[in-house]
């Protein structure tokens, strides 16, 4: 199992990416929530609203996730692939059933 941590500008972008991943059976579940992002831009420290999208999926789906994200956003964002060390069996069963490995 993998979880992708994706930063976006809007909830609409998160919803669009999540729906595409779910419709294509690339993901079994997605969550999104608003955050505040602090970052360095040149000599300035900036703070801006941002949205985090979590995509729960199988191993080997990075290219598919990046293609979906790239089809929605036209700016540089963060797409991080995380590998949980432990996941409950019932969730893994659901993942295998509804978003089977490739």
Automatic annotation (TrEMBL):
Alphabetical list of Gene3D superfamilies matching this protein: 3.30.70.120
Origin: domain of life: Bacteria
GO biological process, one term: response to metal ion
GO molecular function: copper ion binding
The family this protein is said to belong to: Belongs to the CutA family.
Protein name: Cytochrome C biogenesis protein CcdA
Organism of provenance: Methylocella silvestris
Lineage: Bacteria, Pseudomonadati, Pseudomonadota, Alphaproteobacteria, Hyphomicrobiales
């Amino acid at each position: 199992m993998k979880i992708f941590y994706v930063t976006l500008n809007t909830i609409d972008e998160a919803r669009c990416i999540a729906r595409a991943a779910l419709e294509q059976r690339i993901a079994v579940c997605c969550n999104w929530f608003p955050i505040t992002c602090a970052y360095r831009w040149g000599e300035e420290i900036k703070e801006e609203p941002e949205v985090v999208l979590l995509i729960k999926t199988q191993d080997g789906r990075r290219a598919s996730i990046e293609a979906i994200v790239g089809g929605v956003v036209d700016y540089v964002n963060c797409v991080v692939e995380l590998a949980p060390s432990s996941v409950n069996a019932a969730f893994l069963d659901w993942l295998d059933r509804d978003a089977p490995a490739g």
